Amino acid sequence: MSSSRARRTLERVFWAVHSRTYDDKLAEPSVTAHVEELSTWLTESASLDPVVLDVGCGTGNLAVALARRGGRVVGVDFSPAMIARARAKTGPSGLDVRYREADLRAELPFDDGVFDAAICVAVLQFIDDPVRLLGEVKRTLRPSGVFLLDTYQPDIEVRAPAGSVSMAHRTFWSAKSALSRRPRSVRRYWPTEIDALLATVGFEVAARRSWPGRGAVLATCGPRPS
To answer: Are 166 and 184 in contact (CB under 8 A)?
Structure first.
């Protein structure tokens, strides 16, 4: 097996295991509030009843929040296990949410200009070629589209979720916290670096918000008519 195939296999195993612990963190009140704030910000900035792409949707919490605000959402993720949990979570809801497995390091499986908005939360740190992914997101957006990118900054502290979780979950989160402190494990970005990446593919930053250890920017596909 080639080194690249071995790496991909290990990644799939990691995310399959992580899918069982992923909602530990999402259940924390501060994270729930963050999801609600981001989903409100994006839907208020997009067109009425927007078609939204959730890039790296995980277990679907953000996709559900967007759909509750009137979005028609397509969530994509690399991990079949994450997608399975997202579908199980949103299936009975009656919301307009669909999920697709997709390799975020390759061309996204959508035509040009089919989405009104896109969102990508806590994903970019795992992407080897962020310019390629951001370019793909822009390709799938309409000229009037908006993009909300939320990223971790170098001063973020990864910790195990608060509250009562099993020993197995605590062990996993402790291992993940230790791994995150290795400089080559994940890539984190300061706001100026994010601005430069977005500019490279033709996005223009329209607004930004920040929280301890992370920041988000709302970008447009180009200058909006005055």
So the answer is: no
